[in-house]
Amino acid sequence: MDTKEHKAHRPRQSGSKKDKKTKKQKKQQEKNPKAFAPLSGRKADKLARRKQEIIQNKLHVPLVDRTPTEPPPVVVAVVGPPQTGKTTLIKSLVKRYTKHNLTETKGPITVVSGKRRRLTFIESANDMNCMIDIAKVADLVLLLIDASFGFEMVSEPDLPETFEFLNILQTHGFPKIIGVLTHLDKFKNNKTLKVTKKRLKHRFWTEIYQGAKLFYLSGVINGRYPNQEIHNLSRFISVMKFRPLVWRNTHPYLVADRVEDLTDPEEARKNPICDRTVTLYGYLRGTNMKSNMKVHIPGVGDHYLSDVTVLPDPCPLPDKVRKSLSEKQKLIYAPMSDVGGIMYDKDAVYINVPGNFTKENNEDGDEHEVEQGPGEKMVIDLQDAPETLASRLKETSLSIFANSVPIKGAEVEESQHNGSTRSLDDDESDRTRRKVAFENEENGTYEDFENDRINLEENKDNNHT
Description:
This protein is an alpha/beta fold. It is 32% helix and 17% strand. It contains 13 helices and 17 strands. It comes from Acaulospora morrowiae.
């Protein structure tokens, strides 16, 4: 009798059993960590020392957190040589955060960048004194570098270099720095662009630290940098954490975003070098500031404060915490840059009234059909009135009885004047002239009419008798 051959076993090629078996085999092939422990005691000591050094480098001295419940805006300084795109970068960031198009970047510009963060952008001039003042207050520095030229070494001794500004930052606590390479569109060869990026990155790391963040901005489109590149930079700025510096954490300081001269204009005209009374507006940082406190104003000197007043926040944070900011919560406050309807000049304040209650006509002369509320309709109807309310009252009439002659408003106004005066309109001017009516005129006065009436009644009585 022939023996029957059994079916050969075929292992699974896929499925959960196959994955379970493969995972078990990999676990058996893992290396034993104890097998690679240092055999030498000297090597073990070096590894232990290195591990402790890494742990100690991560530690830092704890500082007192003086940040209030509603923190002041983070000061972001945009620094770089001329013609590197500082103004264009600020305009692009403001457009990204608030949807506003800036015509000029003058003075500090404060925007709401998140639910718990605001940013104040300041453009630094190519001046040593300005750079020193910026280094004292900046929390974050955007260092712009022209990639087509490299790190600039100026020929004039009065103008500062890029590396000199880094030394200034080191003297004042060395705040956070982000490098930004611009004018990358001038490179036509991709290989040259790649080599230049790598060379500038390592040179930037040598001056700052290994791994310093460096962003790349290509050409300008419609007066701004590309949206995706600005989006990456703005997201990184919004989530960056700042460690408080010792000097700023123990002293009060204020970045003035608006200045008003309250000196009497007549006194300033008579004596241009007289003592001035100046009001400075801004967000207070650091510790508290008191009245009659001695402060230092860069370029002016030491002075005493006469008064310190708490004002409403011109650019407040959103009241309700949501997942994202709404369009109404993306505020901007730039009093020197003609934004928000108010612009502060040297000697005046200009307020731009929006066309909420004005008629806007298109090129064809037809009015725009926009949905309006009842209040807006009432205001626009008042604008349609061809004459004033007083002139309309003169044309109105009122009937006291059913069949009586209606009395007009103009007649009532004339009857209120007695017979001693009457009004005449002067065609040559807008003013109203009133002429005096004397007794010898044919109209007479009220006393003449009364005497005539009495005489007529006496004559009637005599004739009757």
